[in-house]
Prior knowledge:
The structure is a single chain. By secondary structure, the chain is of the alpha+beta class. Helices cover 18% and strands 39% of the residues. Strands 6-5-4-3-2-1-15-14-13-12-11-10-9 form a 13-stranded antiparallel sheet. It has a two-stranded antiparallel ribbon with strand order 7-8. The protein is globular.
Amino acid sequence: MHWRTPESAVMPLILQTLVTALLWTALSAQAQDAQQNVAALLKATDKFRMSADNLQVETQINVINADGTPDKERRYTVFAQANRQSLVLMQSPAEKGQKVLMLGDDFWLLMPSSQRPLRITPMQKLLGDASTGDVATMSWADDYTGKLAGNEPCGTAEQPAPPSDPSSAPSSMCQHLSLTATRKGVTYQRIELWIGQAQHEPVRADLYVLSDKLAKQARFVMDHPVKPTTVTEMVLTDQVSNHKTTHVRYLSRRPRQVPPEWLNPMFLVRNPPIE
């Protein structure tokens, strides 16, 4: 004997399946749209730090003690190139001749007295709270995905917005992006980022390491208060040990694509002249 499901029972099952499929499709499309929206926001934000695919950025790092007195100062020339490639030349007398090369997830320190490139991590300290990754990488869109957490005040009591930018005062509203790294070789595995609502300039960020511990807080100083075009300074505050602040100042930027051999660690160990 064969049992047949009554037609009156089959139709509701078909409708339920169709509704479920349509709902799933709608939710998937909504999630995809949300991801694309975050990606677009990150690309817009990146333009304030990386105005071209290939740049030469003259950078100065100053460490300030908790009492406001200056501690140390260093100068760097950064060749930030497309496809996650960067070369950092150390220009101060105490470090002259040293270089840091970043190729994707790989970082090398090249010493003028050594014939072997030394593997380092993006968290390797350069000066104060500024690591190699803070200086060598200037893009978020390529390395992070995330979600829009909502609209929130641009500044807090602990992490105020830059005082030189009244459009980003603590009472102003920012878009809060919660970002997760798409690969392990980045400096921070999670970033909570606040950007301006109108032009999407970066305002401040909480930076988390692999253990999901808050390592640093950053705030970004723009060139113009009302209509910003570029980040002129990133101020880092250590959340782990000392109470010093590290000021990463971008003294100048200009488009420049370097020769391919400059991005080869075996070429750089020969200590060739690079200008």
